[in-house]
Design a protein that fits this description.
Blueprint: H1 2-89, H2 98-103, H3 116-123, H4 133-171, E1 172-173, E2 178-179, H5 188-222
C-alpha cells in the first residue's frame, strides 16, 4: 500500500513537471511569436518611414527648383518696374511707357509647389511614423509655410481677376498695344492697379524666398 502511494506521488510529480515544461514551451512560443510580430511591424514601420522621407526629399527638391526660378522671375520684374513706379509717384511717368508696363501686368503665374507626400501621410494618419520629433515638427512647419504661400498666390489671383484685368480690358487695346485714352495714366485707378500688382509681386517673392530657405534647411536634414 505504501509502495503504491509512493508510485502515485512520483507519477504526480512527473505529471506536474511535464505540465510545467509544456507551459514553459507554450509561453516561450507565444513570447517568440509576439516578439517576432513586433519586430516585423517595427521593420515595416521603418521601411514605410524611409519611403515617406525619400518622397519628402523628392518633393523638396522639386520645390527648390520651382522656387529658385520663381524668385528670379519676380526679382527681375520688380527691378524693371520699380523705377517706373517712382516716376509714376512723382508725376514724371511717360505715357509711351504705359504699354510695356501694362503688358507686364497682364501675365500671372505661380510656382508649382509639391506637397503630395505630406497630404498622403496626414490623410493616412501615419504622420507619427516619423520617429524623429524635431524632423516631424520641421516637416509640419514647412507645409504650414507652403499654405501661407498658397494663400498669397490665391489672393494675388483674386486681385488679378477683380482689378487688373477689368481695368486692362476697359482701358487698353490689346491689338494696338496702346491705351484708349492716354490721360488714364493720370488717374488714381491706374496708379492703384499698377502699385497693387507690384505690391502683390513683392509679397509673393518674399514668401517664395522664405519657403525656399526652409526648403534648403529641410533638404539638409532629410539627406542626413
Amino acid at each position: 500500500m505504501a509502495k503504491s502511494t509512493s508510485n502515485q506521488q512520483k507519477k504526480n510529480r512527473t505529471n506536474w513537471k511535464h505540465l510545467f515544461f509544456e507551459l514553459v514551451v507554450v509561453f516561450l512560443g507565444v513570447t517568440a511569436g509576439f516578439l517576432l510580430n513586433n519586430w516585423q511591424l517595427q521593420r515595416q514601420d521603418q521601411n514605410l518611414e524611409k519611403k515617406y522621407l525619400n518622397s519628402f526629399l523628392e518633393d523638396v527638391n522639386s520645390n527648390i527648383t520651382e522656387l529658385e526660378k520663381s524668385v528670379v522671375v519676380d526679382s527681375l520684374w520688380l527691378d524693371r518696374v520699380m523705377p517706373q513706379l517712382i516716376l509714376l509717384r512723382d508725376n514724371s511717368f511717360n505715357s509711351d511707357s504705359a504699354a510695356s508696363l501694362i503688358k507686364g501686368i497682364v501675365q500671372i503665374s505661380r510656382a508649382g509647389i509639391q506637397k503630395g507626400t505630406y497630404q498622403a501621410i496626414t490623410n493616412s494618419g501615419n504622420l507619427n511614423i516619423i520617429t524623429d520629433y524635431a524632423l516631424k515638427k520641421q516637416i509640419v512647419d514647412y507645409h504650414q509655410a507652403i499654405n501661407s504661400v498658397e494663400f498669397i498666390d490665391d489672393y494675388f489671383y483674386q486681385y488679378f481677376n477683380d482689378f487688373v484685368m477689368p481695368f486692362v480690358f476697359a482701358n487698353f487695346s490689346v491689338l494696338k498695344e496702346k491705351l484708349n485714352n492716354p490721360i488714364v495714366i493720370k488717374t488714381v485707378e491706374f496708379e492703384n492697379v499698377i502699385a497693387g500688382y507690384a505690391s502683390m509681386v513683392q509679397q509673393r517673392k518674399d514668401a517664395y524666398q522664405d519657403l525656399l530657405d526652409k526648403s534648403y534647411a529641410l533638404k539638409n536634414v532629410l539627406e542626413k
